[in-house]
Design a protein that fits this description.
By secondary structure, the protein is mostly beta strands. The protein has three domains: 3-101, Sandwich (Immunoglobulin-like); 107-184, Immunoglobulins (Immunoglobulin-like, Sandwich), CATH 2.60.40; 189-283, Sandwich (Immunoglobulin-like), CATH 2.60.40. It has no helices and 32 strands. The protein has strands at 3-4, 11-14, 19-26, 33-37, 42-46, 49-50, 57-62, 66-71, 80-86, 92-106, 115-117, 123-126, 129-132, 136-141, 148-150, 153-155, 158-159, 162-165, 174-181, 189-194, 199-202, 208-217, 221-226, 229-231, 235-241, 244-253, 262-270, 273-283, 291-296, 301-306, 331-333, 336-345. It is elongated and about 90 Å long. Its main location: membrane. It holds the Pfam family ig. It comes from Glossina pallidipes. This is Ig-like domain-containing protein.
Length: 346
C-alpha cells in the first residue's frame, strides 16, 4: 500500500522565477501519481505524462519516489493550492500552497509629475504603487532635506501615498522622492542608467565631473563613449545590496579644444541588454543663456546648468527651474521602486 513520505512544503516564489512543488511517496508499486490544481480542478499531470497545455509546467521524478512539479516563469495567477494524488481506493491526496509575491513598482500614470505652484498655495503629491505584499510608500527629499517643519521640529520622512505641503515657499522647491518597498527583490534586472544633469555648460580649461548611476542584476559592464570611441579612465564605484549591483560612474573632463565638447555617453550592459544615457557638454555662452553657477571648491570645478526661462515674480538667476531633473524618474533598486517629483514656484 503506497503512502506519502511527508507533507508537500508550501512554496513562496517571486513572479518570474521557477516554482517547485515536491510530492514524496514510498511503496508506489503499480499505482500512479497525479498533480492537480485545486481551485480549477485541472489535471496537470498523470504519472509520467503532462496533461495540461500550459507549456510552463513540467514533471520530473526520482525512482518513482520523489515527484516534482515545476512551474517556469511563475505568474501572479499561478498562486493557489496544488494537489498530489495516488490512485488508490479510496484515493490518497495531499496539498501544498504556492504563494506568488511581486516586487514593488510605481504606477506612473497614477503618480504626480512635476508641478508648478504659486507661493503660499497648498499642494498634494500623490504616489501609487503595486506589488504583493502591498508596498509601503515613503516620501523624502533629496540630500536629506526636511519635507516640512512642525512645532516639534523638522520632518524628514512621511509614510502613505499622499504628501501635502501647506503654504509652500521657496524652501519647498526641489525634488521629492516617492519610495515604494515591500521587501521583494526582482529576480533579474536589465541595466537601468540615469544621470541628474543631461546638459552641462563649462568654459575652456574648466574641470567638470560627469556622473551616471546604473543598476542591474547580474552585474553590468560599464564604460564611457565619445562618438564611437571608448574613453579610457574614469572611476567606477560598485556596491551590491540584496543582489542588486549599483555602479556610480564618474568621468573628469577638462575641455581644451572644440572636440572636447559634445555628447558623452555612459553605457551599462549585461546579458539581458544594455542602456545608455547622454550628457551634453557645451561651451558656456553668457550672451544667450542665463545660468546657475555651482562651484565645487575641493576640485576647483565650475559647473553651469541650463535654466528654463519662465515669467516669474523674482530673479530667474536666483531661483532657476531645475528642469534637468527627469520627470517621473523610475529607478529599480533592490526591494524598492522610486519616482521623483519636482516642485517649482510660478
Amino acid at each position: 500500500e503506497p503512502k506519502f513520505s511527508g507533507p508537500i512544503a508550501n512554496v513562496t516564489v517571486p513572479v518570474g522565477r521557477d516554482a517547485f512543488l515536491t510530492c514524496s511517496v514510498h511503496d508506489l508499486l503499480n499505482f500512479k501519481i497525479a498533480w492537480l490544481r485545486v481551485d480549477t480542478q485541472t489535471i496537470l499531470t498523470i504519472h509520467n505524462q503532462v496533461i495540461t497545455k500550459n507549456q510552463r509546467i513540467t514533471l520530473s521524478h526520482t525512482e518513482h519516489r520523489i515527484w516534482q512539479l515545476r512551474i517556469r516563469d511563475v505568474k501572479e495567477s499561478d498562486h493557489g493550492w496544488y494537489m498530489c494524488q495516488i490512485n488508490t481506493d479510496p484515493m490518497k491526496s495531499q496539498v501544498g500552497y504556492l504563494n506568488v509575491v511581486v516586487p514593488a513598482d510605481i504606477v506612473d500614470y497614477e503618480t504626480s509629475h512635476d508641478v508648478v505652484v504659486e507661493r503660499n498655495q497648498n499642494v498634494t503629491l500623490v504616489c501609487t504603487a503595486k506589488g504583493l505584499p502591498e508596498p509601503l510608500i515613503t516620501w523624502r527629499r533629496e540630500k536629506d532635506q526636511p519635507l516640512y517643519n512642525t512645532a516639534k521640529g523638522q520632518v524628514f520622512t512621511s509614510e502613505g501615498p499622499n504628501l501635502t505641503l501647506w503654504q509652500v515657499t521657496r524652501s519647498h522647491m526641489g525634488a521629492y522622492l516617492c519610495i515604494a518597498s515591500n521587501g521583494i527583490p526582482p529576480i533579474v534586472i536589465r541595466p537601468t542608467i540615469w544621470t541628474r544633469y543631461t546638459t552641462i555648460y563649462v568654459n575652456y580649461r574648466q574641470s567638470v565631473t560627469l556622473e551616471c548611476i546604473s543598476e542591474s542584476h547580474p552585474i553590468s559592464v560599464n564604460y564611457w563613449l565619445k562618438g564611437t570611441e571608448i574613453i579610457e579612465g574614469g572611476t567606477y564605484e560598485s556596491t551590491n545590496e540584496k543582489h542588486i549591483y549599483k555602479i556610480i560612474m564618474r568621468l573628469m573632463v577638462r575641455p581644451t579644444k572644440v572636440q572636447d565638447f559634445g555628447e558623452y555617453k555612459c553605457i551599462a550592459k549585461n546579458q539581458l541588454g544594455f542602456m545608455e544615457q547622454t550628457i551634453r557638454l557645451r561651451y558656456k555662452n553668457k550672451h544667450n543663456l542665463q545660468h546657475l553657477y555651482q562651484t565645487n571648491n575641493r576640485n576647483n570645478q565650475l559647473i553651469v546648468f541650463e535654466e528654463l526661462v519662465t515669467n516669474v515674480g523674482f530673479s530667474i538667476s536666483s531661483w532657476p527651474s531645475f528642469h534637468c531633473l527627469k520627470k517621473s524618474l523610475f529607478i529599480v533598486t533592490s526591494t524598492e521602486a522610486y519616482t521623483t517629483v519636482t516642485i517649482e514656484l510660478s
